[in-house]
Amino acid sequence: MNFDYNEEQQLLADSVKRFVAKDYDFESRKKIVGSATGYSDSVWATLAEMGLLGLPVSPDYEGFGGGALDMMGIMESIGEGLVVEPFLSTVMGAQFVARGGSDAQKKAILPLVVEGKLKIAFAQTEKGARYNLAHVAAHATKSGAGYVLDGEKCVVVHGPCADKIVVSARTSGGDADAKGISLFLVDAKAPGITMKSYRTVDELRACDITLKGVSVPADALIGKEGEGLALIEEVVDYGTALVCAEAVGAIKSANDATLEYIKTRKQFGVPIGAFQALQHRMVDMVISYEQAKSMACLACDKVDSEKDSAERKRLVSAAKVRISEACRHVSQESIQLHGGMGMTEEMKVSHTFRRLTMIAQQFGDIDHHLERFSA
Amino acid sequence: MDLNYSNEELAFRDEVRGWLAKNLPADLSDKVAGHEHLSRDDLVRWHKILAKQGWIAPSWPKEWGGNGWNVVQRYIFEEECGYAGTPPLVPFGLSMCAPVLHKFGTEAQKKRFLPRIYNADDFWCQGYSEPGSGSDLASLKTKAERGSDSSGDHYLVNGQKIWTTLGHYADWIFCLVRTDSGASKRQEGISFLLIDMKTPGVTVRPLILMDGGHEVNEVFFENVKVPVENLVYEENKGWTVAKYLLGHERMNTGRIGVSKRELAKLKEFVSKQSKGGGSLFDDVRFRDKLSKVEIELMALEITNLRFLDQMRRTGQPPGADVSMLKIKGTEIQQSLTELMMQAVGPMAQPFKPVDHAEAFDAFTASLTPRYANTRKTTIYAGSNEIQRNIISKMSLGL
Fold this sequence. Notes:
By secondary structure, chain A is α+β, with helices and mostly antiparallel strands. Chain A is 51% helix and 16% strand.
């Protein structure tokens, strides 16, 4: 038993923390969010230089072979700084290839990811699917040596800037069958793909995608035809563990800002933090942080080490239930304790609120994960 | 980072688990599992079994019987006891009075009291709270005045203590008393006294709680003569002693092991309750409530281990973190007893048989009283509101 980051993990976490503090302050971030693409190429290049994109990739493909536990500190810093670059979506995209791809696919894709030369998004969600990963109506039809993809995907986070998109599509079976789902690595500029882009509430870029007769070669298929669901579940659990760690950082940021605020904001001649009604609420926010952090440790540990997929799902869901609860609790309380100022665009806490609110629903909300936990 | 116990820690856990399986008397574990009343003899019997094994006072200095277990081993031991369902170890002598004597006691006091605490020859209770002094402990009024007579120098004690847990079993009580009512700060006129419960003038009156149980008492002191050698540390410095005791290592305030045992029992129990042709476990509304408690407990266990690991690495005693464990641990205990009561639906109402005792389901009837009794957990040992004050002040600087 040991809850310390090792030296390498700590060094990396510290370097990201320093970067976020120095070069990703609230004002810099505001400019990035307001830019045409909604992310910064130079920040992206820096993330790659720091080795963050290589960390979860095997040394066989120029990476460092880190697991989710190694990523925890990084994700916490990303959460604290509300980093909007397509980091998580690219890391997840690379995981599809790393866990399910052929050697040729890994060679072609992973080193480019490590270098920061390839951004990836995951197109999974469809209208009416809610969080059911087996709900895939988009379909792929065999055509010659390859496939033709048709269908619609929505809320593809970081889709607009992606070079490649991992698309789930049905090669057999009905709309919500577990069997018959296949995964394809598709060029984002492939003919037949149209994107309707938008900003999300938490200031990321996303799009709805229409696939109309999109031809892909046979080697675009990741893993075995019709057996993609297990891989989707595995990678989404991995992404869920990482977003849990991101939430921990964002919760810490909200707590730190709120504590600072109630120590300085004066009413009735005293700092409002002198009032017990606020003190106890602040304490409960801190308890939520600690409980969330514990569950993020659990989730990251289990996606790395748990061999039994049913047990992995159960524990990742337990973590996501608790973290979604903490996201909701801390985000709401941080606004309340800031008073009217917390509602404004000018305060970082209102941006943290939005990210926490969306994390609570990303990859499944409390109800979804409670259902999966007790299944 | 590694969330799992090391091989050595696992081996230790297995050793404890194996030993408990062999040495915990079945009649005692049955009583604990059935929420039955534990007599003084039950408590003392289990204490003596552990004392014989050398496991009763792990954190004591070795020369007084401590066994050198580190904080993690101590935690594992307590969790295993909780999980196995041992009778509780009454803390007043072992982990309250004894640490105070180790730190502040004279050699004579140590020799006189510690071996008897170790062997449960003396049963101790705690005299802190008073009718007018609960959370605001420093306002206490029980008075101790210096005097002397033919038998020597003594303190003459007058006043009243309340919420004296197991005071009706106790041979001794350690008390905070006021020795200087003129001190400029209220905390400065308090002393820490050890009082023999058999001394003339000590009266114990039961306070029966709403579950019908007798755990707590009022203790009255009327011209009670306490020899001056029973003063611990300096006169008027009792608050220093009390504060030390509050900050003393308490890494099991979350009572994770007990809650894990109760949770396992709850799950099994719920699956046996029928509802609409199936079991209550299939009722999504009920199961979601259960799952939330289970998840909170999983989180608390890891939080507890994180604090423990930090303590082991830094050598620092737990600070306000312990308050967090107390708040969450007691909330979980309350939720578990509430769900257990809700699980039996209308059968939560029967309490005690008037006739036909042989047909009466005593276990089911214990669930609502237990729910009622567990309300105490968020009140005792510093109410959860006081714990929040502690965190607010000590770790948030508010």
